[in-house]
């Protein structure tokens, strides 16, 4: 299922000859956060895409005309594309195993959730992210990494699909005294 | 010599610029004046734009009137045209040359945009490419290959064949990329007018190949042999570059991102197209007699008084007939438009056309024709919602600004996702053709259509009428328009999940990110145009309206800005100054924080203290102190002694007792009572009155301590909950931070019976506070999104496939038994 979906995606991507450019409403921008949750001892990854972007993308690479709201298959395909396009590794290159938690719709966005067990003494991360960039060169995926008590923002464009982020030791110890931190966007 | 002088003056400006940027500095301590007035940052007021944010008493702008004759060659997708421009110099300056913009030249193979494109780079428009690296191969999608082949095969851009003055004499001209300079035979003095004409031809680009905001779209599967096209023509003729009091010639190369700013003028345009095409254009059709059938003309007349719903001018059947047959010749459509800053048009034999009258009693145009043009691919979606959304937009936007000042407002479907021009907009959403031949659309496509029509028609107000400079300050039209389009969307249906909404709560993750640029950044340099130019200013204006100024005051000021700058050219400072002047509220701190910095909002409530007024009366205060001591937890060591059954000296020696065993340190003597009496006697009558009252009321005093973690100063909005179950909302103006921008305290007083139990900062999420965990006192555990999701996963309704599930047959008892058996077998 996964493999089939991806071969469809890359094929469609090749024959895609641009689509109507849009100056409103198709945002071509996603935002993700990587935050610690001390209550559960996990690193939480929350991806946010506008529902409309997701639907257009799903129609292109899912080969279906179903609405993303009414088709679990389209939703699943989209969420899978997002998690497959995202990866975390330690600074020495060891990949973190990310658990797929699920996805939901809320306030015009589709939210995709992943988590990983917290690693003690984590010095930094290598983050890879390329969601939707095969489709739209303008797609910008922003990631706020908030594991050391500060916000470090990474910007993924079609050109840059991997970033390294190094944590501040002083701050790193600070966050363990804090509860989990949350974005306001519930 | 002259060049040296220019260089020197440039250098001086640069040096002064950086010195100025430093301005006044706090060189001791770390106090930051978040309320410092903006006058050192804003340009100096002058006779053209005054200190109140209004056009000054000598405000001027140029005028450019156009007469255009253009012919569309459908076969070769080519425009051949002549325009005559009448240019009036209202500036106080004498002009020796004129600049025009040749936006079509962006499609030339050697254009700056083409040469300066960062392969796979950020913010690029057009088909997908990826530069590779990090072990990934570079990618070139077939789309990009097709684009390059298309550019190689076709000579796009203007082919200027002649430039002549009013008497037909050739004028010298120089093309510089997407710009053209015409040297005037004699300088054009203040108040004078010059007329010249340009002949040109150019190939029309295929929108889907080159991403151009305009162009043609081909429909190869139509019944007609060879298929059909929709032509959307915009930025299609050489246009005068704006010349303004604050920038002189706005001659900036067109790089594709920053849009336009242009001069107002009157247009008389004749468009010759195949005689089965339907044309929609800026302005009003002048020769319906020669281009429409008698039936269509009478429908158009009837539509002028049809206000309840749109009616067809060209029916779906007529459109279908047109698109499956061939033209027999050509027709010329003539349009006139007064006081517009641009002219765009669309032409196709695929178009159906509907119209509805929008009435504005007492307005300059009491009847505005709201109209839509779309091919069968638009289907029901367009029939139901396009013209309806055009009318709704005018109703909402006019309330916020002024009566719609043009006679038509149009929405046209074509290959462009969404783009605005005076009186005409291009909107992309369509239906999907199903295998059974029906056309359906998804819920998000419906939201997209309504949202995009509102947004683009809204742009006719901002910036097509309130003529801000899109190439320089994208936020001035996109931000204001995103703010208003959301107001209009919620007035359409508040329950719809409007996508990409610019509400404060949608902005928190962007605003805390560390790589953003201030809103006040030139368009071509903005990293993320969506959140920066559309949604952050929109969120700021929602906060300003609903939270800071209040609706009545905001709406008055916003209408005043719109009125002042209607058909004129405002800059950011004119907006900032007008909103302040008209609302009567000092907003410099707000503009500074939201538009000039990258601070975010994060206000934390750190502590709450409860205080009680001393009565000074020892017979009241001393027992209180005694009680306070008794209320403290017992000493741990003493308790442990008790538990161990340790002997206590005083218990073992009951015979030895003295005065202090009966009187503790809180025992009141007459010494204290005398002191109290002389305190009361020493009070002046008014002091005594206040004191007695305070003692009698014995109120609860609470001191709330806040810190500003995000840096952006904002009002503190408090949700208070009391022991008796009552609640209260308290609004503390942002000015509380003026002397202490990092930490403040607020005293709240309540009657004796009102005991505070819970405080929440920004309970309705209206200020874009990025961290809600520090917003409550006492702290509450707020589940993260993932925790909340895990908890509610079993009850999610939105992902049910109701359309499929509804076909499920109800099981009979017999079926149930079979199922049970099957389960048992499986176990």
Topology of helices and strands:
The complex is a heterodimer of chains A (186) and B (827).
Chain A: H1 2-15, E1 29-37, E2 42-50, H2 51-62, H3 72-84, E3 86-89, E4 99-106, E5 109-117, E6 124-129, E7 140-145, E8 152-156, E9 162-166, H4 169-175
Parallel strand pairs in A: 1-7
Antiparallel strand pairs in A: 1-2, 2-5, 3-6, 4-5, 6-9, 7-8
Chain B: H1 2-22, E1 63-73, E2 78-88, E3 95-101, H2 112-115, E4 129-130, E5 139-140, H3 142-153, E6 159-165, E7 173-176, E8 179-188, E9 193-203, H4 207-210, E10 215-219, E11 228-233, E12 239-240, E13 243-244, E14 248-249, E15 265-274, E16 278-281, E17 284-285, H5 288-291, H6 294-303, E18 311-314, H7 316-323, E19 330-340, E20 345-348, E21 352-359, E22 367-374, H8 379-400, E23 408-413, E24 418-421, E25 424-427, E26 432-433, E27 439-440, H9 443-461, H10 474-492, H11 508-512, H12 529-549, H13 551-565, H14 572-583, H15 588-595, E28 603-611, H16 618-631, H17 636-644, H18 649-652, H19 659-662, H20 670-682, H21 685-697, E29 700-708, E30 716-722, E31 727-732, E32 743-750, E33 756-761, E34 776-777, H22 785-792, H23 802-805, H24 813-826
Parallel strand pairs in B: 1-15, 22-23, 23-25
Antiparallel strand pairs in B: 1-2, 2-9, 3-8, 3-12, 4-5, 6-9, 7-8, 10-11, 11-20, 13-14, 15-19, 16-20, 17-19, 18-21, 21-22, 24-25, 26-27, 28-29, 29-32, 30-31, 30-33, 33-34
Overall description:
Chain A has 186 residues and is an alpha+beta fold. Helices cover 25% and strands 33% of the residues of chain A. Chain A has four helices and nine strands, in the order αββααβββββββα. Chain A has helices at residues 2-15, 51-62, 72-84, 169-175; strands at residues 29-37, 42-50, 86-89, 99-106, 109-117, 124-129, 140-145, 152-156, 162-166. A six-stranded mixed β-sheet of chain A has the order 4-5-2-1-7-8. In chain A, α2 (51-62) crosses α3. The model of chain A is unreliable at 1-25 and 171-186 (pLDDT under 50). Chain B is of the alpha+beta class. Chain B is built from 24 helices and 34 strands. In chain B, the strands form nine sheets. A seven-stranded mixed β-sheet of chain B has the order 6-9-2-1-15-19-17. In chain B, strands 18-21-22-23-25-24 form a six-stranded mixed β-sheet, sandwiched between helices. In chain B, strands 7-8-3-12 form a four-stranded antiparallel β-sheet, with no helix packed on it. In chain B, β13 (243-244) and β14 form a beta hairpin. The longest helix of chain B is centred in the middle third of the chain and has 22 residues, at 379-400. Chains A and B meet through α1, β1, β2, α2 and β4 of A and β4, α3, α4, α9 and α11 of B.
